[in-house]
Amino acid sequence: MVDAFWLVAVGLLLATVFLLIMVGEVTLEKRKKAEETAKDAEAEAQRLSAKLANYKSPGHDHAQKVGWRRKRLLNKPEYALLRQLETLVQNAPNRHRLFAQVSYGAFLEATARQDLEETRKVAEHALMRKRADFLIIDRYGNPVAVIEYQGDGHYRGNAHDRDQAKRIACHAAGIPFIEVPAAGLTPGQRLDLERHLGLRPALAAE
C-alpha cells in the first residue's frame, strides 16, 4: 500500500511539474508575442509621428531636396474647352470670371449637425483634394457653374465614382455641375451656360 501511495504521489508531482513547465512555456510565448506586438506598435507610432511631422512641415525642407519642372496646366482638349468658355464669359453682360483647376475646398464647405461633425470633416477633407476643371464666378465671387471635362479616358476604371462626391456637393450647394464630353460643349450645354451667364433669358419656372 505504501509503495502504491508513493507511486501515486510521485505521479502527481511529475504531472504538476509538467503542467507548470507547460504553463511557463505558454506564458513565455505570450510574453514574447506581447513584446513583439509592443515593438510593432512603437514602430507604427514612430512612423505615424514622422508622417504627421511631414504633413505639418511648411514644405521648404522637402522642396529643396528634389528637382522641379514645369508642366501643362491643361491638355490640348481642355485648352480648347477653355477657349470656348472664355468666349462665352467675355460676352456675358455681368462681368463673370473664368478660372481653371480650382480646388473644391476654395468654393465649397461642408455643413452638418453637431453629431455628424466627424463625418463632415471627412467629407470636406475628401472634397478638398479634388479640383474642378473650370469654375465660373459672378461679379461678387460667388460660384455660378462648375464645368468638368470628361475626356475619352474618363469613364475607364472608377473615374465615374471618383466624381460622384463632386456631383453630390455641387447639387447640394445649388451649383450647376456640367460634364462636357470629349467633343466639347453640346448645344444644350451651351444654351444652359448662356442662361447662367445672362446671355439668354432664364427658362420660366413651371
Fold and architecture overview:
The chain has 206 residues and is of the alpha+beta class. The chain is 54% helix and 12% strand. It has 6 helices and 4 strands; from the N terminus they run αααβαββαβα. The chain has helices at 2-56, 60-63, 76-91, 117-128, 159-173, 187-196; strands at residues 97-103, 131-137, 143-149, 177-180. The chain has a 4-stranded mixed sheet with strand order 1-2-3-4. 13% of the residues are buried.
What is the structure about, briefly put?
This protein is of the alpha+beta class and 206 residues long.
Q: Strands, helices and their partners?
A:
Blueprint: H1 2-56, H2 60-63, H3 76-91, E1 97-103, H4 117-128, E2 131-137, E3 143-149, H5 159-173, E4 177-180, H6 187-196
Parallel strand pairs: 3-4
Antiparallel strand pairs: 1-2, 2-3
Which key features would you list for this structure?
single chain, 206 residues, alpha+beta, four-stranded mixed β-sheet
Which class do the helix and strand fractions yield? alpha+beta
Question: Which percent band covers the strand fraction?
Answer: 5-15%
Helix content class? 40-55%
> Overall mean pLDDT score?
84
Lateral arrangement of strands in the main beta sheet: 1-2-3-4
Q: What is the count of distinct domains?
A: 2
How many alpha or pi helices? 6
> Which ranges are low-confidence, i.e. pLDDT below 50, for 5 or more consecutive residues?
none
- Helix/strand order: HHHEHEEHEH
What is the number of E strands? 4
Please describe the biggest sheet, giving its number of strands, its sense, and whether it closes into a barrel.
Answer: 4 strands, mixed
The radius of gyration computed from the alpha-carbon positions, rounded to a whole number of angstroms, is: 32 Å
